[in-house]
Structures are given as structure tokens and as C-alpha cells.
Amino acid sequence: MQLCLINNDFKYELEKLIRIYLPFEKIEFFDYRVEGECIVVAQLSNNASAELFINGKRFTSCRDIEAINGDFTKDSELFLALALFDCLKECFNYSPQWGILTGVRPAKLFSRIAKNKGIDFAQHYFKNYLMVSDKKIALCKETIKGENEITEKSKPDSFSLYISVPFCPSRCNYCSFVSHSVEQAKAYIPQYVDLLCEELKITAKKARDNNLRLMTVYIGGGTPTTLSPEQITRVMNTVKENFDLSGVLEYTVEAGRPDTITKEKLLAIKQGGATRISINPQTMNDKVLENIGRRHTALQTEEAFNLARECGFDNINMDLIAGLLGDELQSFKDSVLKITNLNPESVTVHSLSMKRASNLTVSGNFPEIEMGRIASDMVDFAYNHLCEKGIVPYYMYRQSKTVGNLENVGYAKRGFECLYNVYIMDETHTILACGASAVTKLREPNGDKIERIFNFKYPYEYIDRFDELMARKDGIDSFYNNYKII
Where are the domains of the chain? Predict the structure, then answer.
């Protein structure tokens, strides 16, 4: 596609808007009108106008620029986006429920507008200028309430600890995370665990030296249960021996794939101090599991869940994904019903995000507009059914290139919300992160300043350049020298 920007430079916002409908279209940019088969012309003059030429058809829209934000540039961008959205809606006969909104944290935006101009204005703005549906506005309001209750628990000296185990039994074909199949990376695991424990010790000292108070721990991946019971015990004992856990409100381990879960590993996690685990089937349909490259069955998910209960876990999360290849509305409904019959304390419903690095994207099997409509019905059903069961939304975020431009929502029974999920997405406080691909986020104790320290992505880099990485983490001390805890 050729995007012609006439009298404006709103490349970023208009490109994101086009990708709601054409997520992997190659886009070329021009500051003048060109001719061709697939063109968007976005022009500012006395008003905002858009033209879309595609498949031999022409769609046009013109919007007067209103003074909404008190900033002419922002208002011009908004109404140019609305004009283009008019064209895209008509062309594809589809209006996503989030309208033109493409940001990661819509609830945070809603909250900020409501704080500055009142909740009535926020609702009006979302509905009439961002074209967000009533359902999604209601979801924003619900999750704001849940998130605020959690963020209020955080203090200026609070931090969370994230530990990355970037290995999986096999790579799911929708996955874009830096994770490696055990078959390919098995040789790295012993040395990786050695260095991870060393990094944890160094990180714990920096937390002590800077008078930080640990609130939550999260071991994720990858699939942490690709480690052996002995390796899990070693990592968790290193945490226990080096960090002050007396103030920890939550300790999560992603048990992850059911085909990696054993009684020995669950007992190691339990004895290591975890208070919460996540078992993530993504679907309870065996055919869809096969489609996405999973090597387990729905029955194995049920067996893993029941085994976790036998081992004493009373706070279990389960993940589902709406929009998976080959999934249909009825089979997704069946998955939701099967999950709720197991009676987990929380359920996270993701919408499929089609990242460029995933095998599914590389294969060319992209979800079309119709899949967006179906996925929208899927997440609506999940919302209604889970709320009926007393499992209510408490946090939400979005990703780019998500089927139907939809969202990811965490649902939980009251008192079982995942604190870490809110803290990491809201950037409430510092996250000290250890392991390959982990990102430390340093949050100014009494302000909004954020600095990041990136670990090396791949296990072999993490191992080969460990000393260099530890030198980077001296940035933790430098940061807190500049931003004292009051």
C-alpha cells in the first residue's frame, strides 16, 4: 500500500490504523499524491480528508476539525484518523469495537481523561471521537477500579522481581517471545541456571543497598517447568536465601504447558514458596492444539490442574486465546465452559496477536477480517460467562496486530487478582528482572521517570556476555543515587 500524507506528517498514527485492517501490508510513504492499485491519500487543508483506492474501488471521507484537545495538531491528527477510519470501515464492512484506538493501555488513557475533564467527558470522547463501543468503555471502567485497588498497595520503595526461563518443550506457532525449544537449547540449560542464580544474588544485593522492598515475585518464560525439579528448587532457593520475602504479597510461577507439569515439579514450586501458579492450555480443543503446535491434549490440561490441587495450590490461573487458527465460536465457548468447570481462581483471556516473528505469520496463515468478527464474539462470550461465575475483570492491556484489534483481559475471583500483572503493565513501581530477554524497569520513587536495563535476548548471549550484562546492572545503583526514596 502507498500512503500519501499531504500537508501532514501523521505517519505513525495512520499506519497503525491501517494495520488494524491490513496487519502485514507493506506500506510506502509519500508526501505527494501517487497513482496505483492500493493507495491511501490523507490530506489536511481547511478540513481532514481521506481517500482509499483498493481493488478498483474508491472510498472517501471528509471531517471538519473540531477543537477537542485544545491542541490544533492533536485535533488535526484525530480527525484525519477518523476520516481514514470511515473509509476503512466502508471498504471492509467492519467496525472494530475499539474504534481508532490503538494504544496498549486504554483504561489508563480513559482514567487520565476522566481525572482531567470528568468521567462524562471521558465516556463521550471515547464513544464519539475514538469510536469505542459501549462494551469496551464499560470494560475500561471496570478494570480501572480493579487496577486502582492494586496500585494503591504499592509504596515508593516497592519493587517486583521477574525471573525469565526462556525455554519451552516446543515453539507454539503463534509465539513471538524469545523462547527456545528444549530440543534445540538443552545444552544451555545447566550453565544458564548457574548464571541465573548468580544474577539473582547480585540483584538482591542491589535491592538491599537501595532499600527496596519486595512485593511480588514472578517466574515466567518460556515455560519455567521445562527445568527439572532440582533446577526449579535451586532457582527458588536462591530467591529465598537472598531476597527478603517477609513483605511479599504474591509469588507466581508459570507452570505453563500441561505437558511439562509433574508432581515432582509442582512440589518443588510449592516448597520453594510460590503462592500462585498458572496452567496455560490456550484452548481445550485438541484439533486447535494440534494446529498451534502444542504437544498436549485437553485431558492433560485437566489432569495437570487436578494434580496441582492435590499438591496444595489454591490459587491457579488458566490462559485462553481467542482467534486461534481453526478455532470457531462454539469450540471457544466449549473451552471457556471446560475451564470454568475446573473452577480456577483466575482466567486470562488473550486475543491472538500476529507478530512477525511467529511461525504462523511466517507461514502466511493470517486471520482475515472475518476472524476479527469471530474473535470479538469469543471475547464477549468469555466476559459474560466469567462474570456470571464471579470471575470478574481486573486488568487489561492490548498488543499490536491483534486479531480484531481486541484486548487481553485478566479475570479473577475477588482476592485472587494477580498483582504483578498490574504492576508490570501500569509501570507502578520498579521491576528488577533477571535472565535472558528480561527487562529491568526502574521507576522513579516519587515521580514518573522510567529507565530500562535490557538483558541479552538469547541464552547463548546471556551466557557468553554475562560479565558485560552485570556491568549494565550497575545502572540500578546510579538510578537510585539520582532518585532517592523519600
Answer: 1-93, 149-472
DSSP classification of residue 130: S
Nearest to 469 by CA among 452, 459, 458, 454: 454
Rounded Cα distance, 462 and 454, in Å = 11
- Residue 24 has a CB neighbour count (10 Å cut-off) of 11
Task: Give pLDDT tens digits for 42-92.
Answer: 999 999 999 999 989 999 999 999 999 889 999 999 999 999 999 999 999
- Rounded mean pLDDT of the chain? 92
Beta bridge partners of 54: 57
Q: What gap in Å lies between CA 425 and CA 75, rounded to an integer? A: 28
pLDDT at 69: 85
3 state DSSP class of 166: coil
Tell which residue, 347, 380, 333, 404, has the closest CA to residue 136: 380
Distance between CA 243 and CA 123 in Å, rounded? 44
Rounded Cα distance between 89 and 85, Å, is 6
C-alpha cell at 73: 495538531
- Name residues whose C-beta falls within 8 Å of residue 197's C-beta, 6 or more positions apart in sequence: 234, 235, 238
CA distances from 327 to 29, 315, 352 (A): 36, 28, 11
Which spans in 311-356 are helix H? 329-342
The answer to whether residue 127 scores a pLDDT higher than 70 is: yes
- What is the chain's percent helix, strand, coil content, to nearest 5? 45, 20, 35
Task: State the CATH architecture for 149-472.
Answer: Alpha-Beta Horseshoe (3.80)
